[in-house]
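DM from R.C. (forwarded with permission)

"hey, sorry to bug you on a friday — could you get me a structure for this? deadline for the figure draft is monday and I only need the backbone to look sensible"
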Amino acid sequence: MDSRRPTALIQGASRGIGLEMTRQLLADGWRVAATCRTPATASALRDVATTVGATQCRVFALDVSEEDTVGEAASDFAEWTDRLSLLVNSAGVLHGEDFGPERRLSQVRPDVLHKVFAVNAFGPLLVAKHFERFFLHKERAVFANVSARVGSIGDNHAGGWYAYRASKAAQNMFTKGLSIELGRRAKSLIVLAVHPGTVATELSAPFVPRRGPDTRFTVERGASQLLEIFREATLEDSGKFFAWDGSEIVW
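My reply, with the result:
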Protein backbone atom coordinates (compact mmCIF):
# COMPACT_ATOMS: atom_id res chain seq x y z
CA MET A 1 0.00 0.00 0.00
CA ASP A 2 1.35 3.39 -1.05
CA SER A 3 0.39 5.96 1.59
CA ARG A 4 2.83 8.62 0.36
CA ARG A 5 0.56 9.97 -2.37
CA PRO A 6 -2.84 11.53 -1.61
CA THR A 7 -5.73 9.29 -2.54
CA ALA A 8 -9.23 10.39 -3.50
CA LEU A 9 -12.46 8.50 -4.03
CA ILE A 10 -14.95 10.06 -6.44
CA GLN A 11 -18.39 8.48 -6.14
CA GLY A 12 -20.34 8.98 -9.35
CA ALA A 13 -17.33 9.37 -11.64
CA SER A 14 -18.68 8.00 -14.91
CA ARG A 15 -19.77 11.39 -16.27
CA GLY A 16 -20.18 15.09 -15.64
CA ILE A 17 -18.44 16.82 -12.79
CA GLY A 18 -17.38 13.56 -11.14
CA LEU A 19 -15.52 12.44 -14.25
CA GLU A 20 -13.88 15.84 -14.62
CA MET A 21 -12.76 15.91 -10.97
CA THR A 22 -11.20 12.51 -11.57
CA ARG A 23 -9.30 13.86 -14.58
CA GLN A 24 -8.07 16.95 -12.74
CA LEU A 25 -6.95 15.08 -9.65
CA LEU A 26 -5.04 12.56 -11.74
CA ALA A 27 -3.37 15.41 -13.62
CA ASP A 28 -2.27 16.82 -10.24
CA GLY A 29 -0.64 13.52 -9.30
CA TRP A 30 -3.33 12.07 -7.05
CA ARG A 31 -4.30 8.44 -6.94
CA VAL A 32 -8.03 8.17 -7.61
CA ALA A 33 -10.59 5.47 -6.93
CA ALA A 34 -13.46 6.21 -9.30
CA THR A 35 -16.82 4.56 -8.71
CA CYS A 36 -19.92 4.15 -10.84
CA ARG A 37 -22.84 1.76 -11.12
CA THR A 38 -21.67 -0.15 -14.20
CA PRO A 39 -17.97 0.22 -15.05
CA ALA A 40 -18.38 -1.98 -18.12
CA THR A 41 -20.45 0.73 -19.84
CA ALA A 42 -18.52 3.75 -18.51
CA SER A 43 -16.26 4.07 -21.54
CA ALA A 44 -15.01 7.60 -20.84
CA LEU A 45 -14.04 6.69 -17.29
CA ARG A 46 -12.38 3.47 -18.37
CA ASP A 47 -10.37 5.41 -20.96
CA VAL A 48 -9.13 7.80 -18.28
CA ALA A 49 -8.16 4.94 -15.98
CA THR A 50 -6.43 3.02 -18.76
CA THR A 51 -4.38 6.06 -19.77
CA VAL A 52 -2.79 6.52 -16.35
CA GLY A 53 -2.67 2.86 -15.31
CA ALA A 54 -3.96 0.84 -12.37
CA THR A 55 -1.38 2.13 -9.88
CA GLN A 56 -2.84 5.64 -10.20
CA CYS A 57 -6.52 5.03 -10.96
CA ARG A 58 -8.89 2.17 -10.30
CA VAL A 59 -12.56 1.88 -11.12
CA PHE A 60 -14.92 0.21 -8.66
CA ALA A 61 -18.56 -0.79 -9.09
CA LEU A 62 -20.76 1.03 -6.60
CA ASP A 63 -24.50 1.70 -6.70
CA VAL A 64 -25.51 3.95 -3.81
CA SER A 65 -29.05 2.59 -3.91
CA GLU A 66 -27.71 -0.94 -3.18
CA GLU A 67 -25.84 -1.05 0.14
CA ASP A 68 -24.22 -4.41 -0.64
CA THR A 69 -22.31 -2.81 -3.50
CA VAL A 70 -21.10 0.00 -1.24
CA GLY A 71 -19.71 -2.50 1.24
CA GLU A 72 -18.10 -4.56 -1.53
CA ALA A 73 -16.47 -1.46 -3.00
CA ALA A 74 -15.06 -0.56 0.41
CA SER A 75 -13.61 -4.05 0.80
CA ASP A 76 -12.05 -3.91 -2.66
CA PHE A 77 -10.71 -0.43 -1.98
CA ALA A 78 -9.05 -1.67 1.23
CA GLU A 79 -6.90 -4.00 -0.87
CA TRP A 80 -5.50 -0.94 -2.67
CA THR A 81 -4.92 1.44 0.23
CA ASP A 82 -5.83 2.01 3.87
CA ARG A 83 -6.53 5.75 3.83
CA LEU A 84 -8.28 8.56 2.02
CA SER A 85 -7.40 12.23 1.71
CA LEU A 86 -10.58 13.14 -0.16
CA LEU A 87 -13.96 11.55 -0.78
CA VAL A 88 -16.56 13.26 -2.95
CA ASN A 89 -20.13 12.03 -3.36
CA SER A 90 -21.04 13.55 -6.72
CA ALA A 91 -23.80 11.26 -8.00
CA GLY A 92 -27.28 12.77 -8.03
CA VAL A 93 -30.64 12.46 -9.73
CA LEU A 94 -33.13 15.18 -10.66
CA HIS A 95 -35.03 13.62 -13.54
CA GLY A 96 -35.38 10.36 -15.44
CA GLU A 97 -37.08 8.91 -18.48
CA ASP A 98 -40.51 9.03 -16.88
CA PHE A 99 -40.23 11.77 -14.28
CA GLY A 100 -38.96 15.29 -13.70
CA PRO A 101 -38.99 17.88 -10.91
CA GLU A 102 -42.53 18.54 -9.71
CA ARG A 103 -43.96 21.93 -10.52
CA ARG A 104 -47.04 21.39 -8.38
CA LEU A 105 -48.21 19.12 -5.56
CA SER A 106 -50.42 17.03 -7.84
CA GLN A 107 -47.28 15.73 -9.62
CA VAL A 108 -45.75 14.16 -6.50
CA ARG A 109 -45.23 10.40 -6.89
CA PRO A 110 -44.14 8.04 -4.07
CA ASP A 111 -41.99 5.92 -6.39
CA VAL A 112 -40.08 8.99 -7.54
CA LEU A 113 -39.63 10.19 -3.96
CA HIS A 114 -38.11 6.84 -3.03
CA LYS A 115 -35.81 6.80 -6.07
CA VAL A 116 -34.54 10.36 -5.62
CA PHE A 117 -34.04 10.03 -1.87
CA ALA A 118 -32.19 6.73 -2.34
CA VAL A 119 -29.56 8.37 -4.53
CA ASN A 120 -29.36 11.95 -3.23
CA ALA A 121 -29.83 11.45 0.50
CA PHE A 122 -29.38 7.84 1.60
CA GLY A 123 -26.52 7.09 -0.81
CA PRO A 124 -23.92 9.51 0.59
CA LEU A 125 -24.78 8.40 4.12
CA LEU A 126 -24.18 4.74 3.22
CA VAL A 127 -20.88 5.68 1.60
CA ALA A 128 -19.88 7.40 4.84
CA LYS A 129 -20.88 4.32 6.82
CA HIS A 130 -18.66 1.97 4.82
CA PHE A 131 -15.72 4.30 4.09
CA GLU A 132 -15.37 5.96 7.50
CA ARG A 133 -12.49 3.65 8.41
CA PHE A 134 -10.29 5.18 5.70
CA PHE A 135 -10.38 8.54 7.47
CA LEU A 136 -9.20 7.29 10.86
CA HIS A 137 -5.73 8.76 10.47
CA LYS A 138 -4.02 11.97 11.58
CA GLU A 139 -3.57 13.63 8.18
CA ARG A 140 -5.85 16.36 6.82
CA ALA A 141 -8.75 14.93 4.82
CA VAL A 142 -12.04 16.07 3.27
CA PHE A 143 -15.38 14.28 2.97
CA ALA A 144 -17.67 16.25 0.66
CA ASN A 145 -21.23 15.83 -0.53
CA VAL A 146 -22.23 17.63 -3.72
CA SER A 147 -25.50 19.26 -2.75
CA ALA A 148 -27.54 22.05 -4.36
CA ARG A 149 -28.64 25.51 -3.30
CA VAL A 150 -32.27 24.44 -3.78
CA GLY A 151 -31.74 22.07 -0.84
CA SER A 152 -31.42 25.05 1.50
CA ILE A 153 -34.62 25.39 3.52
CA GLY A 154 -33.86 29.02 4.35
CA ASP A 155 -33.27 29.86 0.69
CA ASN A 156 -36.45 28.26 -0.67
CA HIS A 157 -38.54 31.09 -2.09
CA ALA A 158 -40.02 29.34 -5.13
CA GLY A 159 -41.47 26.03 -3.87
CA GLY A 160 -41.93 23.01 -6.12
CA TRP A 161 -39.25 20.45 -6.98
CA TYR A 162 -40.36 18.51 -3.90
CA ALA A 163 -38.32 15.32 -4.31
CA TYR A 164 -35.08 17.02 -5.31
CA ARG A 165 -35.28 19.88 -2.80
CA ALA A 166 -36.19 17.61 0.11
CA SER A 167 -33.63 14.92 -0.76
CA LYS A 168 -30.87 17.52 -0.87
CA ALA A 169 -32.13 19.05 2.39
CA ALA A 170 -31.98 15.58 3.95
CA GLN A 171 -28.49 15.10 2.53
CA ASN A 172 -27.48 18.40 4.12
CA MET A 173 -28.76 17.25 7.51
CA PHE A 174 -26.84 14.00 7.15
CA THR A 175 -23.72 16.01 6.24
CA LYS A 176 -24.07 18.17 9.34
CA GLY A 177 -24.54 15.09 11.53
CA LEU A 178 -21.52 13.40 9.98
CA SER A 179 -19.37 16.44 10.66
CA ILE A 180 -20.16 16.07 14.36
CA GLU A 181 -19.86 12.31 14.73
CA LEU A 182 -16.90 11.70 12.45
CA GLY A 183 -15.17 14.73 13.92
CA ARG A 184 -14.95 12.89 17.23
CA ARG A 185 -12.98 10.00 15.71
CA ALA A 186 -11.22 11.54 12.73
CA LYS A 187 -9.75 14.68 14.25
CA SER A 188 -8.33 16.04 10.98
CA LEU A 189 -11.39 15.36 8.83
CA ILE A 190 -13.31 18.25 7.23
CA VAL A 191 -16.91 17.40 6.28
CA LEU A 192 -18.56 19.71 3.75
CA ALA A 193 -21.65 20.20 1.63
CA VAL A 194 -20.98 22.05 -1.63
CA HIS A 195 -23.13 23.65 -4.33
CA PRO A 196 -21.35 23.55 -7.72
CA GLY A 197 -23.58 26.08 -9.42
CA THR A 198 -25.35 25.19 -12.64
CA VAL A 199 -22.93 23.04 -14.63
CA ALA A 200 -23.34 21.89 -18.23
CA THR A 201 -24.23 18.26 -17.51
CA GLU A 202 -27.07 15.87 -18.32
CA LEU A 203 -28.71 16.82 -15.03
CA SER A 204 -29.11 20.48 -16.05
CA ALA A 205 -29.63 19.97 -19.79
CA PRO A 206 -33.47 19.98 -19.76
CA PHE A 207 -33.53 23.37 -18.04
CA VAL A 208 -31.39 25.41 -20.43
CA PRO A 209 -33.41 28.38 -21.75
CA ARG A 210 -34.44 27.96 -25.37
CA ARG A 211 -33.43 31.52 -26.08
CA GLY A 212 -30.35 33.42 -25.06
CA PRO A 213 -26.87 32.23 -24.14
CA ASP A 214 -26.10 29.09 -22.16
CA THR A 215 -24.80 30.51 -18.88
CA ARG A 216 -23.96 27.17 -17.27
CA PHE A 217 -20.42 26.51 -16.08
CA THR A 218 -18.37 24.09 -18.12
CA VAL A 219 -17.62 20.84 -16.31
CA GLU A 220 -13.95 21.86 -16.27
CA ARG A 221 -14.74 25.06 -14.41
CA GLY A 222 -17.30 23.40 -12.15
CA ALA A 223 -14.84 20.72 -11.10
CA SER A 224 -11.92 23.10 -10.57
CA GLN A 225 -14.03 25.43 -8.40
CA LEU A 226 -15.05 22.58 -6.11
CA LEU A 227 -11.52 21.23 -5.88
CA GLU A 228 -10.36 24.71 -4.89
CA ILE A 229 -12.90 24.74 -2.04
CA PHE A 230 -11.63 21.35 -0.87
CA ARG A 231 -8.02 22.58 -0.96
CA GLU A 232 -8.75 25.77 0.99
CA ALA A 233 -11.16 24.36 3.62
CA THR A 234 -10.05 24.28 7.25
CA LEU A 235 -11.26 22.35 10.27
CA GLU A 236 -13.29 25.41 11.25
CA ASP A 237 -15.28 24.94 8.02
CA SER A 238 -16.34 21.39 8.83
CA GLY A 239 -20.12 21.07 8.93
CA LYS A 240 -20.71 24.04 6.61
CA PHE A 241 -22.42 24.40 3.23
CA PHE A 242 -20.49 26.32 0.56
CA ALA A 243 -21.36 27.60 -2.91
CA TRP A 244 -19.00 27.31 -5.87
CA ASP A 245 -17.52 30.74 -5.15
CA GLY A 246 -16.67 29.95 -1.54
CA SER A 247 -19.61 31.83 -0.05
CA GLU A 248 -21.47 30.07 2.77
CA ILE A 249 -25.08 29.00 2.18
CA VAL A 250 -27.63 28.95 4.98
CA TRP A 251 -28.81 25.42 5.72
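R.C.: lifesaver. The CA atoms of residues 18 and 44 lie 12 Å apart.
me: no worries. Helices lie at 16-27, 43-52, 67-78, 110-131, 162-185, 219-232.
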